[in-house]
Design goal:
Structural class: alpha+beta
Helix content: 10-25%
Strand content: 25-35%
Radius of gyration: 30 Å
Order of helices and strands: HHHHHHEEEEEEEEEEEEEEEEEE
Shape: elongated
Number of strands: 18
Distance between the termini: 72 Å
């Protein structure tokens, strides 16, 4: 009872001295504002905002907008614009400005298989938000035993450009369907057929491939084009050696990559070091015995060279190496 009396006295004093921010705060301080019960508290807060104009209302509108941000971005924007229009000079308006930046931030993500066959169109799934234009560049980043360089995508902190020092083999631009709901949307895009090799794809919403963390963005992903399907398993383990079985299958025909020679390399300081030369049998199988003394027990440390495709493939790119032995 004493609390209620004091509460009413403070409200009366706030009204008398036009402490409008304090009134809005006092009327809403005990309302639990969370994103899981919006229907319960948002109408209450909206009613207080309507009856009690104050700069603090910008913060209350921010709380509502932020609560809707993950699930209903268009509704979130409604409250953002209400705060900007009605309370542009509020000390709490910066919260609204930052939330609007997040809402309008460009975002994209590329999804595709790591391995694809040659001479087929390659599907990419593009998940995008606030993206109206797609710019694609495909660089060849293939390495071989004779020429090996670590080709890394770079982001220049001054120009904000995303670049790669590698041969550009394909580029294209495409208009995307425009959405004004600030939500994520997905579409499928196809890259032109490529010859066997390692590639890096860079996608952006601007022709300069600038990533400023706001309305310009750029992303990259790795792609291996190979007609050879590779699987590996650990078939035998001893104190000093492991025996791995590697199976090579033609990705297009399903036939074994039979009686073919491949070479395993370990790369150190961008220099491929020969580990073993192997020849597949009629089933496309080959066996590799590792040597713990040379610290080569793990296939993930090696790369396989396929002469027919003139490329090195990192064995760590295989999904996993199954174990057929009890450890």
């Amino acid at each position: 009872k004493e609390y209620d009396t004091l509460y009413l006295r403070i409200l009366s004093l706030n009204k008398k001295h036009e402490f409008n921010d304090a009134t809005s705060y006092l009327l809403t301080k005990d309302i639990s504002m969370n994103r899981y019960s919006l229907e319960g508290w948002v109408p209450k807060v909206e009613q207080i905002i309507s009856k009690h104009p104050s700069n603090y209302n910008a913060y209350l509108l921010y709380m509502i907008a932020n609560s809707y941000y993950d699930t209903k971005k268009a509704k979130s924007n409604k409250y953002i614009q209400q705060a900007k229009t009605n309370y542009p000079k509020s000390p709490w308006i910066e919260n609204i400005i930052e939330l609007e930046k997040r809402l309008k931030q460009a975002d994209m993500k590329l999804e595709h298989s790591l391995f694809e066959p040659s001479q087929f169109y390659i599907p990419l799934k593009l998940n995008a938000r606030n993206i109206e234009k797609l710019h694609i560049r495909v660089y060849k980043t293939t390495n071989s035993p004779k020429t090996y360089t670590d080709k890394v995508v770079k982001h220049d902190t001054l120009t904000l450009r995303t670049t790669l020092d590698a041969p550009l083999v394909y580029e294209e631009s495409k208009d995307l369907k425009s959405f004004e709901d600030w939500e994520n949307h997905s579409t499928t895009y196809k890259i032109n057929p490529l010859s066997p090799g390692n590639y890096t794809i860079i996608a952006s919403n601007n022709a300069d491939f600038i990533n400023d963390g706001e309305q310009k963005t750029a992303v990259s992903s790795q792609l291996i084009v190979s007609d050879i399907f590779i699987t590996a398993s650990l078939d035998e383990a001893t104190a000093n050696n492991d025996v791995h079985k590697i199976l090579l299958i033609n990705r297009k025909t399903g036939k074994p990559f039979a009686n073919k020679q491949v070479t395993l390399y370990r790369v150190s300081d961008n220099t491929p070091q020969l580990v073993s030369q192997l020849t597949s049998n009629t089933k496309g199988e080959l066996s590799y015995q590792s040597n713990s003394l040379q610290r080569l027990r793990n296939l993930n440390d090696l790369e396989i060279y396929i002469p027919e495709e003139s490329q090195l493939i990192k064995l760590r790119n295989l999904n996993n190496v199954s174990r057929h032995v009890v450890m």
